[in-house]
Amino acid sequence: MTLYTHTFDIETLGWDNPIAVGVFDGNKYKDFLKLEEDQDVIWEFLEYVRDNIGPVRLYAHNAAHFDNRFILDCLVRHRQRVSIEGGLGVLRWTDTEITFRDSYQLLRTSLEKACIIFGVEEKLSWDHSSTRPIKDMSLEERRVFRAYLERDCRSLSEVYEKFVFELIKTFDILEPGQTLAQTSLRIFDSFYPLDKIESNLEHETQIRAALYGARNEVYTRYGENLNLYDIRSMYVSCYDTPVPVGKMSFVLPSMDRGIIGRAEVEVPDDMYIPPLPLHHGGQLLFPTGKFGGWWDMEELRYAASLGVKVKLKAQLDGKTAPILKDFGEVVCKLRSSSEGDLARLWKLLGLQLVGKLAQSRSRTGIKHVSTVKDLEGTIPIDKYEEYVEIDRPVKGRLQQHIARVTKPAITMRIRAEARIRHHKLMAQALSKGSLYYCDTDSIYCCATLPTGPDAGDLQEIGKALRAYFVMNKFYGYVTPEGVLKQRSSGFSGLKLSEDQFKELLRGKTLRLPNPSPNLTSPGDIIRGQTVVSSPRFRTIRTPLSQKNRVFDGEVTKPIHLK
Fold first, then answer.
1. Where are the domains of the chain?
2. Rounded CA gap, 433 and 443, in Å?
3. Which residues 6+ apart lie within 8 Å of 516 measured at CB?
4. Low-confidence ranges of the chain (pLDDT < 70)
5. Nearest 5 degrees, angle CA 96-CA 102-CA 103?
6. Cα(299)–Cα(302) distance, rounded to whole angstroms?
7. pTM of the model
8. Domain range 6-178, CATH architecture
C-alpha cells in the first residue's frame, strides 16, 4: 500500500527570487528551472500540476512560512481564486481543487531530523549562500543542485508516508489530521468518543475564565553551578487525573467538592512562589495579595493547604472521570521506548491534545468573494476587490464539528493539575537551596533533586557553570564542557556571546541583525505586494521588570496586588 504523497520544493536565489521548483508524485520526479530572466518557474509548475496531475494535495516542508507564499503570490498575479487556512498551512487553488499543505505541521521537526527518525535516505548538502542563477552554473553545479532538489522532494514523500503509516498502524485510525494537534484529537477520539463528553457551552465563559497557562518566571538573574531539570511528559503524566465529562450546574459553594469556583483569595506576602495564576494587565501572574477570579477547585484546595485564604462566591460541579488515562499511557509508552527526536515527536503528539481541546470556536480566513454567501459589512482587501478577510460564520456542519471537538473544561483541569505538580517540585527545590528559573515543565536550581524514569518524574537535562536569565524564555548558560547554550524564544536564529549576555544583565541594549529575514505576509500578497525579504534587526534589552515578577537586586519577588 502506498499513499503516493505528492511533494514539492521551491529553491530561491537569496530569500525571495524563485529559480527552481521540484515536484514528486510518489512515482515520477520533475523539476522546473529558471534559465531566462523573465521566466516564471512557479507558474510553469502550477500549470503542470493542473494539466497533468489534477486535484491533489501537495506537501512542502515549512510551506506556511516559505513555499506557499510564492505559490500564493503567483496565483494572485494570474488572477486565480484561492483561499487560505491555518495561517498559510493550507492554500487552496479553488478552481482546480489543488491544495498546497505544510508537512511541518504534522511532522513538527526538520526534514533532516525526520529522515533520521524514519530511516529515510538523508538530505544532500547544498550551500545556499553560494547559490547562483542557474544559467550561470557549470554543468556539474547544476547537476548537484538538481540532485539536491530531487532528494528533498523524494525524502519528504517517504518520510510523510512512513509517519502516516506508523500512526495508522499504532492507533488504528483511518488517517491523520493536517496537523499534529488534529491527529492527537482523532487518536483520543478512538480511545474515548468525544460525543460522550459534554461541551458545557452555556458555562464556557466561566470555564475559560478558569483556563490559565503554565508558569514561566525568572527568580535569580545570574547563577553558578546549577542543575537543570525538567519533568518527563508533564502534561501527559497528568492525564491520569479525573476531568469534567458531564453536564455542569451551579451548586452551593463548598471547598469539599466542585469543578471550578469563583473566589476571593488572599495570598500571604511572604510566599516566594505563590500558587494561584491570574490574568492581569495582559500578563499571566502568580501574585501575592488580595484578588478574585475563577479557578479550578483542585487548585483552590491546594492553595488553601499552603495558607492561602479562599472565600468561595460561586461554584460549578458535575461528573468527572479519568478518560485521558489510557491515551496518556500509550503515548508515554511510545515515548519511553523511543529515542531522540522520535521520542520528542511522541511527546508532542500527547501534549497537543490539551491545546486542541481548548481551541477557539471562532474561525477567520481570507476568501474569494465568489465563495462568500453574505458580503454585508466586508471590505475587499485587494485592488481588484476579489478578496475579503472575514470571520467565518460558525454554523451548520462546521458548528456541529467545533461543538463536538471543543472541550475547554478538560484542558482547564489538566493545566491546573500540571501547575500543582510543578509547584510541589519547585517548593522542594527551593527548600534545598536557591531557585533561578522555571518554564512550563522545567526547574533550574542549585539543589540536587531525585529523578526517575517515569512520566511525571524529574530528569536532569544538564548542568550550568554559569547562567544568565535575561527574561522569560530568553537566557543562556555555559555547560561544564564550556559550550554556551541559548534559549531565545522570539529571536530565532539570533546567537549571542557570553559577553553579550553579561551586557544585557547590566542593562545594555543590543541591536543585532537576525539571519532569518521577514517575507511578505499572506495578507499583503493578496493586496498586491510581491514576495520580498526584508532584513530583521532585533532590539534586545533587559526589561525594567520581568512583567510577572519585580526586581529586588539580582533576585525577583512576586507582584503584590492590593
1. 6-178
2. 12
3. 492, 493, 536
4. 1-4, 362-365, 376-377, 391-399, 490-493, 515, 536, 543-546
5. 120
6. 5
7. 0.90
8. 2-Layer Sandwich (3.30)
